Amino acid sequence: MKHTATVASLLALFAAGAAQAQDAEAAQFRDGFLAGEIDWSAVEARAAEEGTVNLYYWGGSDLLNVWMDRVVTPALAERDVTLNPVRITGTKDAVDLVLAEKNSGKGVGQGSVDMIWLNGENFATLKRQDALFGSFARLLPNAENLEWNPDDPRALLNLRDFGVETGGAEVPWSGEQYVCAYNADRVAAEDVPSTFAELRGYLEANTGKFTYIKPPHYIGNTFVQEAIYAHNPDGNGAEPFQRSVEEIPAEELARLIAPGLDYLRDLEPLLLDAAGGTPRYPEDNAALDGLFLNGEVDFNCKFGLYAVATGLATGSYPEAATQFVFPEGNMIKNKNYLAIPANAPNPGAALVLADWMTSVEAQASKLQQTGMPAGIDGWTLEEAEAQSIVEASPGLVGVTQAELDANAAPDTNATLVDVIEATWLEYIERDSTDPIEAIVARAYDNLSK
Amino acid sequence: MSVSSSIASRSGAQERMTARERRTRFWQMVQLVPIMAILVLLFGGALVLAILQSLGFAPWFGVNTFPDFSYFGALWGSSTFWVSLGLTLYYATVSTVIALILGILLALALVKTFPSKTFYKYLYKLPLMIPYTVGIALAVLMLSNGGMLSRLAAFFGMIDDPAQFPQILKTHYGWGIIAVYVWKQTPFITLAVYAVLLGIGRETEEAAAILGANRRTIFFRVTLPQILPGVVSSTLICFAFNVGAFEAPFILGGGFPDTLPVVAWRYFNDADYTLQLQGMATVVSIGLVAGVILFGYLAAYRRYERRMGRN
């Protein structure tokens, strides 16, 4: 009897959550701003009135944390806004919080997250759950630092995030490319692989000297995607993977990804610690950096255009670390973004922060101090501004920008990433004996639930 | 007249007694309210929610197929679940047993008198004050292939490359996990057993020795039955913790197949929200397994106590 009462009261709690309440005045501000009726000085006035902005971001980089405290905090203080940086271990924590609050009935002006640094699946989740503030990005004064013309192919990364249309609900903050580094003290320059076949050849001679981050971590997913692009049976690389699951049947996707996954499965016995039975896949960047620094692996692949330059400066990379082009033609390039959730408690301050973050000044100092590449587009800037970004760059080590551009490939559609990661877990980690077609079909079923 | 009045006054006194009793009982209830509120609302509520979600009730992710046993079916139907369960129980049992043996030996040593005993009595408690995560970090720093031991071995030329050091952490034998649990739990068990040993005194052991029993017999026939309450309560706590613990198997474990708490975490941490229900089914399964084992352990202990004539 008592239990029934508890359950009933809990159910009542959720039922109450269904009726979405919101702060009427904040909702009015949102609607007015998105309709273009509120000018920027009024936004700034409102931001000063709100007084605080809660930025949730992955806090695993000391350089970035220091930059937030030393540069962003004073810059916002000039605008009478106090930055509250909430450093989280995984971006999904912030997404969880937004969704939990949204489902308990908190609307705009009532939640606790003003801004999240994210991309890919996390943005796709918020979009699918209708938990975004709205199309704000092009209304910011600094939106002119970005290319928005859909006819220009260079605008693609501003308009689509892992193939999902951003719709202006997030603003680009940083651009990245998946780059590998090798330790020149351990690997001779002529042995450095540039294709997956050469990587396999290297590992046959030097078994155990390579591993990649374990999917479903996005850095591991990206390595798997590159292997899939390179082994695409149609030979057109990333092209078929720009469509969403709705546009590509399960059998077709299974056919396209099978050779890449078979390559990775056959590579398993040559990976780190595979001699002891099971290969070891590190959980995150820090773990992989540790293995690389310690000489346990010879290569370190991750999103990090300037990772070697900053790694050498902080001592987290071995002294002879050098970047190289791998895999030829399939080095995935993407952007990461700042999004405002639908229940942001301080929408005005969040807009002011988003605008400041896309300024040339902020982008140049971020690049210089943290090694995070600029998210704004150089060709939209005036010459002096563009030059300040170039000068702030910590520099590439061993590769040129032209090589990186020539070998760039787009990211995989976020909905396909879910399927590919589920297939990797099933086919490679769990050594499933089912054919790839069956595993992909199951992943499709799970997604459509 | 006097008799009847005395009866009346006695019955009045009785009524006052029951009123006082009622007040006492009321205050007892009031004192229980805080802990009951925490147990019922926080733990009970979380448990009810976990069970509801594991049965398909999660309208906030757009899933509501309650009651739906398919999550448990999918979980229990896969062979990897049973491998994970086996690993979880293996790490929990082996480390509890090793810690128990070391703990009893240490407690027996501590009741004797020896030089600088006070110092050792403080020293052995040190791991109790250090959090598990610090213990895990120590294990990584010392025992991993990039750790102090492997670097020293490479430095002295015993191996060419730190990577060649025999792998202690990150294997399914779980030596790293067991080492951390034993390091942290031996003092805990020692503390519990030592307290019981102090309470019972040494007279019975001395009597047995005078009657001609050898040390082995004294331990198994006299000491062990007396310290059993301390042994049972401390191993119960350690085992329950080890089954549900996440950090050590996550950081020091051998990867797939993982222990059940790590499996649950992987489900929760996946960007695909529908997998959270599978994670809840895993959490509820951990609770069920731990509950059944601990209940069986306590029931067996109660039977033993009754047979011994203790209540």
Describe the structure.
The complex is a heterodimer of chains A (449) and B (311). Chain A contains 18 helices and ten strands. With 449 residues, chain A is of the alpha/beta class. Chain A has two domains: 20-176 and 334-402, 3-Layer(aba) Sandwich (D-Maltodextrin-Binding Protein, domain 2), CATH 3.40.190; 188-297 and 413-448, no CATH class. In chain A, the strands form two sheets. In chain A, strands 1, 2, 3, 6, 7, 8, 9 and 10 form an eight-stranded mixed beta sheet that branches. In chain A, strands 4-5 form a two-stranded antiparallel ribbon. In chain A, strand 4 and strand 5 (164-165) form a beta hairpin. The radius of gyration of chain A is 23 Å and the shape is globular. Residues 1-20 of chain A have low confidence and may be disordered. Chain B is mostly helical. Chain B has one domain (79-308): MetI-like (MetI-like fold, Orthogonal Bundle), CATH 1.10.3720. Chain B is 77% helix and 1% strand. Chain B has helices spanning 2-54, 70-77, 79-111, 117-123, 126-129, 132-143, 148-155, 175-200, 203-210, 215-244, 247-252, 260-269, 275-308; strands at 57-58, 63-64. Chain B has a two-stranded antiparallel ribbon. Residues 1-8 of chain B have low confidence and may be disordered. The chains are: A alpha/beta (449), B mainly alpha (311).
Short summary of the structure?
In chain A, 46% of the residues lie in helices and 13% in strands. Chain A has 449 residues and is α/β, with parallel strands linked by helices.
